[in-house]
Write a structure and sequence with these properties.
4-stranded antiparallel β-sheet; about 190 residues; 3-stranded antiparallel β-sheet; 7 strands; alpha+beta
């Protein structure tokens, strides 16, 4: 019978994820973020415009001016915050895991080992598709939402990452040859 052991781990010997060089998101992704904020702005302005149209007497001109100045200041702050937080986002793929770091005020680093990944998805929104961008989502067991999403990747890079993770979670059998599909083939099949 094997004897149970539970030896101490020297914390100084553990690999440090902080030392990993992270790759930044594609700069075109700021356009996607700003487009989303523009849609939010249009909805807010539309809501206040409808309120003003139907209930002009609801607020005085001073209050309306305060609301407009407040919205402009809020959105300016949001754009500045987005640009600074964009610079703090980064990702890396290592032999056994994926890392994603984000956050300006509260920094979050998520590390997902490939042996925990159930499936991987590539997602493109409308604006992202027009800019040639995509996001990768890694799903682990127990949830319907992704555990890790890396947005703002070039489509070709996202496809390579998806193939890499797919091979890590479903390695080919020893007697099966590994099929490598050129990116051009993947792109032409997508549009058919």
């Amino acid at each position: 019978m094997n004897e149970f052991t539970n030896n101490s781990i020297d914390l100084n010997q553990l690999p440090k994820f902080e030392e990993v060089q992270l790759k930044g998101l594609n700069p075109k992704y700021i356009t996607v973020l700003l487009f989303n904020f523009s849609l939010l702005l249009l909805l807010v302005i539309g809501g206040f415009s409808a309120l003003f149209y139907f209930k002009q007497e609801a607020f005085s001109n001073t209050i309306w001016m305060g609301i407009v100045v407040g919205i402009v200041l809020f959105l300016t702050g949001l754009v500045v915050f987005t640009k600074f937080s964009f610079q703090k986002k980064g990702y890396a793929f290592r032999e056994h895991d994926a890392i994603y770091k984000s956050g300006l005020i509260s920094e979050t680093t998520t590390i997902i080992p490939f042996n925990r990944v159930q499936h991987v998805a590539l997602h493109q929104g409308f604006i992202s598709r027009k800019l040639g961008l995509a996001s990768i989502e890694l799903f682990t067991a127990g949830g319907s939402s992704s555990d890790l999403e890396i947005p703002g990747l070039l489509l070709a890079d996202a496809q390579i990452i998806k193939n890499l993770v797919s091979q890590k979670i479903n390695p080919p059998k020893q007697d099966e040859p590994i099929e490598v599909v050129p990116t051009e083939t993947l792109l032409s099949e997508e549009h058919e």
